[in-house]
Amino acid sequence: MLKQTTLGAPVETDGIGLHTGVKVHVRLVPAPPDTGYVFRRTDLGGFEIPANVESVAHCGYATTLMRTGVMLSTVEHLLAALRGSNVDNVFIEVDNLEIPILDGSAEVFAEMIGRGGIVEQPLARRALLVRERVAFEQGNRRISVEPADSYQVDCLIDFPHPMIGVQRFSLELSDGAFNREIAAARTFGFTAEIEELQRSNLIRGGSLDNAIVLTPEGMMNKEELRFRDEFVRHKILDIIGDLALLGMPLLGRVTAERSGHIMHAGLMSKLLRVRSAWDIVDMPETAGVAKTS
What we know:
It is a single chain. The chain is α+β, with helices and mostly antiparallel strands and 293 residues long. The chain folds into two domains: 3-124, Ribosomal Protein S5, domain 2, CATH 3.30.230.20; 126-282, lpxc deacetylase, domain 2 (lpxc deacetylase, domain 1, 2-Layer Sandwich), CATH 3.30.1700.10. It contains six helices and 19 strands. It has helices at residues 76-84, 107-116, 177-181, 191-199, 230-243, 261-273; strands at residues 3-7, 11-16, 23-30, 37-41, 47-50, 56-58, 64-67, 70-73, 90-94, 118-124, 126-130, 134-138, 141-147, 151-159, 165-172, 188-190, 212-214, 250-257, 278-282. Strands 11, 12, 13, 14, 15, 18 and 19 form a seven-stranded mixed β-sheet that branches. Helix 1 crosses helix 5 (230-243) and helix 5 (230-243) runs parallel beside helix 6 (261-273). It is globular and about 50 Å long. The two termini are 14 Å apart.
């Protein structure tokens, strides 16, 4: 069976928050087995916020966690990098109320994890094994999870924009696929939404350095797309990051159509309520997850 993992050494970086615009320092620290992902607000005496479904406060334009009134926003890209890199246990020290956006993808976080190294721990890695299909729908938006022998994500997006349209991408989260296929995909938004977001006191740290900004005819960025279908790949990044709040990797297939953070949270809550739909098992070697050496 596969063993749990943590980082070999602490790693850190600095950046600004996408929505708050504040400077923030993040440090990833090795943690004991069965810790999971735990955020520590070092500006508040190390106050801990566990990365779990119960901590989700709201999830409009980003996923925000809260414990007893203390909040932490935009956690999904960092959590995606941890889950995608098969890191099970880490303390995440942060000195402000939002994880930095960096370049709008998870690539910098994935590279940080690579620098720290990944080490095995004595206990078996656990997985959430999906036994029954569970679906969550809102209008023409839907997301479901069903039994599979590995962690798989299939995502479809549909935007009436000349650079997007209908895009679909499928991924099995194994053998470094996250770093190769997903980590570099950047967040994106539309100029038509910017004024509304600014009125809501959001995207104060947004720029062409940390997002793809789409005009009605094209995009404002000078840098070319990193993938032809970068947009749907970023949606998969968000799915992996949000579903990391389940506390362990899935053994199941996630299928998403026009989903978003609210849909991801709805699926997780519904799945956990349907107790017959899942079990917690030791992760088998054959689950499609590359063994850490």
